[in-house]
Structure formats: structure tokens, C-alpha cells
């Protein structure tokens, strides 16, 4: 029944492994038959027991094509034994045993039937693409398998994948590898000249390949649809081949033309996105031309926007692409980069979960009852920051409350679209605007139906769609409008409503867009230059000549985040009176460091956009104290740190260092400023301006932090002054790190002092700085007796020469300590 393909060599092993355990990995190159032959070969497996096989494909086009190919192999129509389910389209019947799904469909099936009753095997095809929905589907299916359905089999298939790492993750499940056809692929490297436009380089490579390789169709990989169109324009005069396009938004009939042989027998040049890397069988391909580029979505958590970026392909993707030329026979692959550059490509593509908008995943997890993603087994766990941001958005959309799914969230989950669009559709239904919402949803989900340069007003798109629907002359692109209308029609069926009754722009469009993107309501800051500000504080601009540039408020539908300033591509005016659900009122209490005053006002904001404010005379005490304490942390100089206070604080800190067995508190400013409110808050009742801080005497404040029994011992253990032999009281200088305190005293005042003074109940000797009559240090010591007996004579000799009028006795042990020049002579 089936053609002999390389996958046949491992089919017996696949059957026996799945009979013995419930999880298996199969690695097979393109063309081995894993996507078509293998599922059919497992239909009669005893362990399947007549249950269904679900096979996941990352793209709708591939799902339809694979289902069609399997049906052809059985000589049946799609919808009999083999069917498919993709978004807004399905062909399954009562006898369907194999259903080919796009990956998001599986998640919905699990949510509706937690045990997947009637399903015996779930196949994750092309798992190496690591889409967000594939990772989520695997995590949920694994939990179903672990808790409810030990008999449920999982089969992961890929052409290029780090199978060892994945096997470990899946409890060391076995891995089987199939060899591909032994058709060689010749690699030819064609690096373009620096700065040359992509479409020029690709068109030249196409013409060269048609000359150099006499047989076989050409499959050309380009990053996006715009690149495909531009390249097609470069090849418009190509007469020896049929130039066809292939991407996901094409109508099915045009996709089919690209997949089938040319009816006129000409060679084909198929210009495709990465959609043709895997699963799809494009008959007759013998040559691949790889631009080396891909368009990938990148979600920026800082801005909340997803943008498409053109990046270099990864090495595994390049191998996938070149392998398409060797499926039917020896092939040739042209790579538009230098051979030496190839080894610098990233080996494997990054999982989408690391850079995607996680709002859909967060909603699914909430519906599954998972608050901590670590409860599930992930091939790659969702990043915590992006997941938290997604949950914040869902809370704003009223889909979550306290982290749990709301009734509104359950309603959103039933609609097969992004939570934002689902929220808009549900909101519109309650407002009686469902008909308009179906058109807005279709326009948001599909390509722009108006030509470039048509301006950013979404209302123009609504007019064009309604005119097209009525059969009138529309300014839009007919093919795109037809696709938008198909999607709108599906939404009308789901919401059970008809099309909008009247043509013309709708003033409600902006309100609906604001429901989809509450974080993209933009306020006009500079009408002359079309500059707006978004609720997250980021600027965004619209073309200055666009009529929307004059509106005070816009609800933005499509936006390029940019580097420092976003670019608005699609928007609609919105009346701020209709945004009351987005406005939050907040008492804002701030310390103005410039004026040194406390400011309090009631603000109305949308995000960071300030709408209105008024001063507040009465402020909640807790909020006022918290702000004042934060002001002290930012500006410590607000506190009056007097010299007596600092000396006392250092004495306590010295005792803390010396007497570790006692509970002396940490009074370092670093510790005190880390938490200000517990010790300072009660003293801030009268503080309104900088001068009020200066009136706070901090000595009793900090003394209150000492236990009573310790506070009474500070003076005894760490005195402020010591009396020296001359009768003077000399101040001690303490250091908060516990170094010995310093006694700086003139040498003459210490005559007769044999032992070094001590503090801390005799435990700590002071550091004596002996000074000259001019108060310059001549000796630093903690051993006075040793100094008198030793180096004093050398010091004496020097000081006698410089200060001859002063008293420098030979015997410092018995000499009289003096304060002045010489002692008076007795008469």
C-alpha cells in the first residue's frame, strides 16, 4: 500500500517500543516518510486498541497537506480514515482514526477532555521547531499521561533535534533513528556582494541555478511575504519557468498550485517562507536556494510588543532547507553566504517559549489549574518575568483575579484567538457591537488590506472591507480583503451575528481597539509631528501628514516598538470619555527633592499617562510616613547628624565590635537607612519640609534603640574623655569598626603616665598619639612604658632642638606633667 521509504526500516522497532513503554523519540531526515507512512503503519497496533491517533503539525498548510497525502496513500478522501483540524477549518468524520492538528488545537482538546478519552497516541511532528504551543501541549499531555492515562502513548518526531537532552527530560525514553534516502546534496555557496538587496541576490541565484542545473524544480527560501513579492517582481520576465509563491496566508488553491507539478510541464520556481522547511511535499524539487534569512517573532517584555525580526537561519534550519533538494534524487542547494560563515551559525533554533508573548500560555495554565509552572514537565520552562507580565495583562483583561481564572477568562478561552482579541469580542458582545467586532478581529488577525501609503486609520480598512462585501469598488487589495472577509464570516458564525448593517467609518472602532490593547491607548503630545505617548511611558509616532496625527487620543492596533520610539501602523481615534474602565485614580504622595517639600495630589491615569490631578490637603498618615522615610533613604543629608551624635554612635558601634557576646545593636548608617520607618517613623508627625527634619534631635531617637541595661553602660565602658597626668580631660576619638580609640595629647601632658590608658572595662588599650607643642604627632603607641624606656630619648633630642623653651626631662617616669612651657621655679 505504501511506497518503500527509509522509515520502513525502523517501523518494527517503533511498534515494539511503543508496545513496551508509553514514550518514544524518532529522529528521521526529510523525505524519510515519518509524517505520512509512520502514523498509517501504527493504526492496527494492538496497544492502540482502535483508538485515535492525534498528530500535531506546526502550520496549517502542513497539516492539510500531510492529511491529504495520507488519505491519498489509502485511496480515500480527507475526512474518512484521515482528517485534519486547523483554526477555522476541519475535515473529520465519524470514522476518522488519524487527526492531523495544528498545535493549539491539542491544548483546547485537553482542556475540554482532561483524559483525552478515545485517543491512544499523540504524535508531535517536527518537534525541533519548538513552537510555544508544542511545548505547552507536551507539558499538558505529559501530565495527563502521568496522572490519568498511563496507557496514552507519546511519540516525538524530528529531523534535527538534540534527542539526548530530550530523552533525559522524558524519563530516559528510547530514541530510534532512521536514515534518509542515500541521495547526495551538493552544496554551492554564493555570498552576495556587500550591501546588495536580498531580492537582487536571490533572483540572480535563481537564474544561475536554472542555467547550471538542467532538471528539477527550484524551492527558494525567503524570510517573509514582502521579500517573496519583491523577488517575484525581479523574476517577472522569466519565461523558462513558472514563478509561484507559497506562504501561510495564501488561499488554499494557490498553495495547491505551488505543491503540484506545473500543468504546462514547465519547471517551477517556488518562492516560499520557512513554511516549506518540513512536512510539506513539493513535488519535483531538485534545487534549493537558501537566502539564509528567516523572520521570527520577538516579544519585548519591556515594551509589551511583539515584532518580527529578520535573522540568520540556524544551522539545523539550513540543513533542513538543503535537504529538501535531495528527497527525490541527487540535489543541489545554493546557499547565499560564504562557506566559512556557515560554521558560525547558531546550531539549533531557540525555543519560541523563550521569546514569545506568553499571554495565551498563561491563560491555558490558569484554566488547567496550574499557578506554578514547575508543576509541569517542560522541554523549556517559560521565563518567569515574561510569564508574570502575561498574567498582569490577563488581570487587566479581567481574565484572571488573584491569579485564578475568572468567568470572563473561561469565556475568552472558548474563542480560538489571542486573549486580547477574545476579550474584545466578549466585550463587544456585551455592548451590542459584535458585528463591528468581527470585522475588527479579522483585520487584526490578517494582513493589511490597503496598499502602502494608505495611512494608519483602521476605519479606512473597515470601509474598504464593507465596500468589498457589498460588491462595490473597494480601494483595498482584493485577495487580502477576500481572506479578511472569510475570517470575519467565521467570527460572525461563532458569535451568531450578521455583518454590520451600515457602511462607513465607525466611531466605535477605537473603543474596541482599546479593549484589545488597553496598554496601547496613546495620548497626543505633539500634533505637528505626530508624536504620541503610550501608557508604559514610551513614545510612538505616526506619519505627520496622516490625518490621525491631529486626534488627541488614539487606540493603537499595530505598532512597531522600535528602539527609542515606536511607529504606529494602524489605529483609530478614541474618545477619552469612553475609557473610564482604563482610568485608575490614585493618591500620589511624593517628596520633592528639588524644593524640599512634601507634595500630595489625586491623579487620574491610564498607565503612566496623566489625565488630570488636583492637590490633596489630607494625606493618609501611613502613606506620608512611608514617603518621608523613602526620602531619607534617597537623601540621607536630610537628617541632622551632629558631631555629638556621631561620636555617641561610634562609641556604641565600638562596643558592638568589642563585646560580641552582648546584644549591642547595629547603628551603622547603612543598616539604619536600609529600614528607616521602624526607628524614625514615629518622629515624623510634624515633618512637611526639609527644615522640619532638622528639628528632630536624633540622639534620643537612636538611644531608644539600645536595651535599657546597655544604654546605662555606654559612659562607663566607652567614656568620651580621659583625664591625663597634667589634669586635662582629653577627648577620645572612636571608630565604628572597632579600632582602638585614639587619644591625641601633647607628650608633655603624659609625663609620669607609666601604663597605656584603657577603656571597655580594661579590655581595650587606647591608641595614644603623642603630639609636639605644635600638636603634630611625634609618636603613636599602645605601649607607653616601652616608649618612655626606649625611643623617648631620641624623640627628646629632636624636640629640644626645635622647642628649646619647653621642658624635656631626662626621666619621663618621674617628671611632672605640664600643660605649658616650663613649670614654675620654687622660690
Describe this structure in words.
Strand 30 (758-759) and strand 31 form a beta hairpin. The chain has 29 helices and 33 strands. The N and C termini lie far apart (139 Å). It is α/β, with parallel strands linked by helices.
- Residues in helices, as a percent range: 25-40%
Counting DSSP E segments of at least 2 residues, the number of strands comes to 33
Give the strand content. 15-25%
Query: Spatial order of the strands in the main sheet?
Result: 4-3-5-2-6-7-1-8
Shape, per Cα inertia axes: elongated
Helix and strand layout, with pairings?
Layout: H1 11-20, E1 23-27, H2 37-41, E2 52-57, H3 60-73, E3 82-86, E4 89-91, E5 98-102, H4 103-112, E6 119-124, H5 132-147, E7 153-158, H6 163-169, E8 175-177, E9 185-189, H7 198-212, E10 217-221, H8 225-234, E11 241-246, H9 252-259, E12 267-272, E13 285-290, E14 293-300, E15 305-312, H10 315-323, E16 331-335, H11 339-342, H12 359-368, H13 384-396, E17 400-401, E18 404-405, H14 407-413, H15 419-431, H16 434-445, H17 458-469, H18 478-495, H19 509-516, E19 521-526, E20 531-533, E21 539-541, E22 553-560, E23 566-573, E24 584-592, E25 597-606, E26 609-615, H20 621-634, H21 643-658, H22 669-674, H23 677-680, H24 690-694, H25 698-703, H26 708-711, H27 714-717, E27 721-723, E28 729-733, E29 742-746, E30 758-759, E31 764-765, E32 767-771, E33 777-781, H28 784-789, H29 792-802
Parallel strand pairs: 1-7, 1-8, 2-5, 2-6, 3-5, 6-7, 9-16, 10-12, 10-13, 11-12, 13-16, 21-23, 29-32
Antiparallel strand pairs: 3-4, 14-15, 17-18, 19-20, 19-22, 20-21, 22-23, 24-25, 25-26, 27-28, 28-29, 30-31, 32-33
Helix pairs in contact: 4-5, 7-8, 12-13, 14-15, 15-16, 15-19, 16-18, 17-18
Amino acid at each position: 500500500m505504501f511506497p518503500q521509504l527509509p522509515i520502513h526500516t525502523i517501523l518494527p522497532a517503533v511498534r515494539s517500543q511503543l508496545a513496551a513503554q508509553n514514550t518514544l523519540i524518532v529522529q528521521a531526515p526529510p523525505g524519510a516518510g515519518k509524517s505520512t507512512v509512520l502514523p498509517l503503519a501504527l493504526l492496527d497496533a494492538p496497544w492502540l486498541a482502535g483508538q485515535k491517533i492525534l498528530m500535531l503539525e506546526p502550520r496549517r498548510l502542513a497539516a492539510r497537506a500531510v492529511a491529504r497525502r495520507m488519505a491519498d496513500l489509502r485511496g480515500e478522501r480527507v475526512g474518512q480514515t484521515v482528517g485534519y483540524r486547523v483554526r477555522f477549518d476541519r475535515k473529520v468524520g465519524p470514522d476518522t482514526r488519524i487527526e492531523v492538528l495544528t498545535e493549539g488545537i491539542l491544548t483546547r482538546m485537553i482542556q475540554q477532555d482532561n483524559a483525552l478519552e478515545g485517543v491512544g497516541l499523540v504524535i508531535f511532528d517536527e518537534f525541533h521547531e519548538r513552537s510555544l504551543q508544542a511545548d505547552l501541549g507536551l507539558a499538558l499531555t505529559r501530565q495527563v499521561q502521568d496522572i490519568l492515562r498511563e496507557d496514552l502513548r507519546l511519540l516525538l518526531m524530528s529531523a534535527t533535534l538534540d534527542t539526548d537532552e530530550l530523552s533525559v527530560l522524558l524519563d530516559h525514553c528510547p530514541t530510534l533513528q532512521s536514515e534518509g534516502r542515500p541521495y547526495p546534496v551538493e552544496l554551492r555557496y554564493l555570498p552576495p556582494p556587500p550591501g546588495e538587496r536580498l531580492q537582487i541576490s536571490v533572483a540572480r541565484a535563481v537564474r544561475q541555478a536554472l542555467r547550471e542545473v538542467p532538471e528539477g524544480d527550484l524551492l527558494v527560501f525567503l524570510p517573509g511575504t514582502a521579500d517573496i513579492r519583491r523577488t517575484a517582481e525581479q523574476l517577472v520576465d522569466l519565461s523558462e519557468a513558472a514563478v509561484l509563491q507559497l506562504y501561510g496566508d495564501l488561499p488554499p488553491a494557490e498553495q495547491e498550485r505551488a505543491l503540484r507539478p506545473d500543468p504546462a510541464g514547465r519547471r517551477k520556481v517556488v518562492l516560499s517562507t520557512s513554511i516549506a522547511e518540513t512536512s510539506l511535499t513539493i513535488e519535483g524539487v531538485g534545487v534549493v536556494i537558501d537566502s539564509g534569512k528567516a523572520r521570527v517573532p520577538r516579544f519585548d517584555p519591556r515594551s509589551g510588543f511583539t515584532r518580527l525580526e529578520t535573522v540568520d537561519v540556524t544551522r539545523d534550519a539550513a540543513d533542513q532547507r538543503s535537504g529538501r533538494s535531495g528527497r527525490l534524487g541527487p540535489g543541489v542547494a545554493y546557499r547565499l553566504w560564504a562557506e566559512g560563515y556557515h560554521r558560525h551559525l547558531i546550531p539549533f533554533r531557540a525555543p519560541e517559549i523563550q521569546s514569545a508573548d506568553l499571554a495565551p500560555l498563561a491563560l491555558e495554565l490558569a484554566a488547567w489549574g496550574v499557578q506554578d509552572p514547575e508543576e509541569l514537565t517542560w522541554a523549556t520552562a517559560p521565563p518567569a518575568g515574561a510569564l508574570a507580565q502575561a498574567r498582569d495583562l490577563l488581570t487587566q483583561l479581567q481574565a484572571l483575579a488573584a491569579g485564578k481564572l475568572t468567568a470572563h477568562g473561561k469565556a475568552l478561552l472558548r474563542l480560538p484567538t489571542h486573549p486580547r482579541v477574545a476579550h474584545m469580542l466578549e466585550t463587544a458582545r456585551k455592548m451590542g457591537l459584535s458585528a463591528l467586532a468581527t470585522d475588527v478581529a479579522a483585520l487584526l488577525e490578517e494582513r493589511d488590506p490597503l496598499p502602502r501609503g494608505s495611512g494608519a486609520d483602521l476605519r479606512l480598512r473597515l470601509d474598504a472591507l464593507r465596500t468589498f462585501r457589498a460588491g462595490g469598488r473597494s480601494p483595498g487589495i482584493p485577495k487580502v480583503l477576500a481572506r479578511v472577509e472569510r475570517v470575519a464570516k467565521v467570527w460572525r458564525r461563532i458569535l451568531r451575528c450578521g455583518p454590520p448593517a451600515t457602511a462607513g467609518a465607525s466611531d466605535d472602532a477605537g473603543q474596541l481597539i482599546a479593549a484589545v490593547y488597553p496598554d496601547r491607548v496613546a495620548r497626543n503630545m505633539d500634533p505637528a509631528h505626530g508624536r504620541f505617548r503610550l501608557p508604559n511611558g514610551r513614545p510612538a509616532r505616526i506619519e505627520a501628514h496622516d490625518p490621525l496625527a491631529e486626534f488627541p487620543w488614539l487606540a493603537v492596533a499595530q505598532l512597531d516598538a522600535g528602539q527609542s520610539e515606536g511607529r504606529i501602523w494602524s489605529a483609530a481615534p478614541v474618545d477619552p470619555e469612553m475609557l473610564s474602565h482604563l482610568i485608575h485614580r490614585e493618591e500620589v504622595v511624593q517628596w520633592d527633592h528639588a524644593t524640599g517639600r512634601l507634595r500630595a495630589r489625586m491623579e487620574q491615569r491610564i498607565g503612566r499617562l496623566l489625565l488630570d490631578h488636583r492637590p490633596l490637603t489630607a494625606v493618609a498618615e501611613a502613606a506620608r510616613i512611608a514617603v518621608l522615610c523613602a526620602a531619607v533613604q534617597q537623601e540621607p543629608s536630610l537628617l541632622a547628624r551632629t558631631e555629638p551624635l556621631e561620636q555617641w554612635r561610634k562609641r556604641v558601634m565600638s562596643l558592638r565590635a568589642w563585646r560580641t557576646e552582648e546584644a549591642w545593636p547595629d547603628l551603622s548608617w547603612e543598616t539604619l537607612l536600609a529600614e528607616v520607618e521602624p526607628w524614625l517613623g514615629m518622629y515624623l508627625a510634624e515633618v512637611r519640609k526639609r527644615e522640619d527634619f532638622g528639628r528632630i534631635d536624633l540622639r534620643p531617637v537612636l538611644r531608644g534603640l539600645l536595651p535599657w541595661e546597655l544604654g546605662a553602660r555606654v559612659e562607663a565602658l566607652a567614656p568620651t574623655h580621659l583625664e591625663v597626668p597634667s589634669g586635662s580631660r582629653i577627648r577620645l576619638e572612636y571608630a565604628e569598626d572597632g579600632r582602638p580609640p585614639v587619644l591625641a595629647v601633647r607628650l608633655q601632658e603624659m609625663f609620669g603616665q607609666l601604663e597605656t590608658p584603657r577603656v571597655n572595662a580594661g579590655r581595650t588599650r587606647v591608641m595614644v598619639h603623642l603630639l609636639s607643642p605644635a600638636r603634630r604627632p611625634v609618636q603613636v603607641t599602645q605601649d607607653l612604658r616601652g616608649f618612655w624606656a626606649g625611643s623617648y630619648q631620641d624623640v627628646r633630642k629632636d624636640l629640644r632642638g626645635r622647642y628649646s623653651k619647653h621642658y624635656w626631662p631626662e626621666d619621663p617616669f618621674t617628671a611632672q606633667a605640664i600643660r605649658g612651657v616650663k613649670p614654675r621655679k620654687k622660690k
